[in-house]
């Protein structure tokens, strides 16, 4: 009985012992977490930028920074060819009158004026509007081009979440013989990004660019109408380009500009690494910013970084230093 009584006390004491041990480790973990990662105790995401060591330090082909001060930013050449050239930027906004109460209802429809769109119709309508605005704009400019051939205005169509950080007139000076320019990346499924489209401002180039975009719209309508808006137009662009039997898509693997005739249109392919660069999210995912980045594209949640970069630039007035802010902030996932 004494033996049983002793085991009885021991067995009933086990739960209390386990609870005490468990509470000890929980308290230690809580204390360490509070000391090392204070934001986790509130289970709260970052709502501002956290600067860390800039990526790409020691790499000669990447932007070098000391704190938020650029050290080796290169400058574009401003050589003139004798032509009076200028660049006009065009951004298209499409706004829908949709109810927030039905935002999660897949069967809900978007009403714009007297028209009602389901999900598929809406995707098609967005691309139609985007391409139609570009075509109308190009047709108007084509009709109103000055007779003096030495006065040329080039056009660049962009998403609204980009920052131009260097001279883009260099595209037209260095590559005088293209009609339309697209940006590419080393991505097998989606090698082309539609957030940056440049059109040379001569009558022939404007006409050929318009016909090229009409073909993209046709392919989108017939093949990718069920894809999401961003995915569908990029897939359509890639299909039109790759449909050329002589096109070698292995050239997308290297960030070097090249030109190719797609149908009757001379298309210039510019690397996203310079003309449509997007800051990667999270630590250790990239090796710094290329030296000659000209366009920064703040996709998705990076729009907060775009706002804070502008605020930083407004106080410093130095584009190069703003790029260092972006470079240092690429280590943090930013939420808008």
Write up this protein.
There is one protein chain. This protein has helices at 2-36, 119-143, 169-174, 203-223, 229-242, 272-275, 303-316, 319-329; strands at 65-66, 69-70, 84-90, 110-112, 115-117, 151-158, 162-164, 180-184, 192-199, 258-262, 265-271, 295-297. It starts with a helix and ends in a 7-residue tail after the last helix. The protein is globular. Strand 4 (110-112) and strand 5 (115-117) form a beta hairpin. It has 8 helices and 12 strands. The chain has one domain (65-97, 111-329): Spore Coat Polysaccharide Biosynthesis Protein SpsA, Chain A. Strands 3-6-9-8-11-10 form a 6-stranded mixed sheet. The protein has 336 residues and is α+β, with helices and mostly antiparallel strands. The chain is 39% helix and 17% strand.
């Amino acid at each position: 009985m004494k033996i049983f009584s002793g085991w009885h006390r021991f067995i009933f004491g086990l739960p209390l012992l386990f609870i005490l041990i468990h509470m000890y480790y929980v308290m230690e973990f809580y204390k360490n977490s509070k000391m090392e990662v204070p934001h986790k105790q509130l289970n709260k995401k970052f709502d501002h930028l956290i600067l860390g060591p800039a990526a790409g330090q020691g790499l000669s082909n990447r932007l070098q920074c000391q704190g938020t001060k650029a050290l080796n930013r290169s400058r574009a050449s401003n050589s003139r060819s004798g032509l009076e050239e200028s660049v006009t930027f065009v951004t298209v906004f499409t706004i829908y009158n949709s109810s927030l109460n039905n935002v999660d209802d897949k069967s809900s429809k978007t009403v714009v004026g007297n028209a009602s769109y389901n999900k598929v119709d809406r995707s098609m309508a967005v691309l139609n509007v985007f391409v139609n605005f570009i075509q109308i704009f190009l047709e108007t400019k084509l009709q109103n081009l000055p007779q003096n051939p030495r006065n040329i205005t080039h056009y660049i169509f962009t998403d609204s979440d980009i920052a131009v950080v260097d001279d883009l007139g260099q595209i037209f000076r260095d590559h005088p013989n293209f009609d339309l320019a697209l940006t590419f990346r080393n991505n097998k499924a989606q090698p082309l990004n539609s957030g940056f489209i440049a059109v040379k401002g001569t009558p022939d180039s404007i006409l050929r660019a318009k016909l090229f975009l009409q073909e993209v719209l046709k392919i989108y309508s017939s093949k990718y109408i069920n894809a999401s808006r961003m995915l569908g137009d990029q897939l359509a662009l890639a299909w039109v380009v790759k449909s050329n039997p002589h096109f070698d898509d292995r050239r997308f693997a290297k960030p070097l500009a090249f030109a190719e005739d797609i149908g009757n249109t001379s298309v210039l392919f510019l690397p996203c690494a310079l003309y449509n660069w997007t800051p990667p999210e999270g630590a250790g995912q990239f090796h710094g910013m290329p030296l000659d980045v000209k366009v920064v594209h703040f996709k998705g949640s990076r729009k907060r970084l775009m706002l804070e970069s502008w605020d930083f630039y407004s106080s410093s007035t130095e584009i190069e230093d703003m790029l260092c802010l972006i470079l240092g902030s690429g280590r943090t996932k930013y939420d808008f």
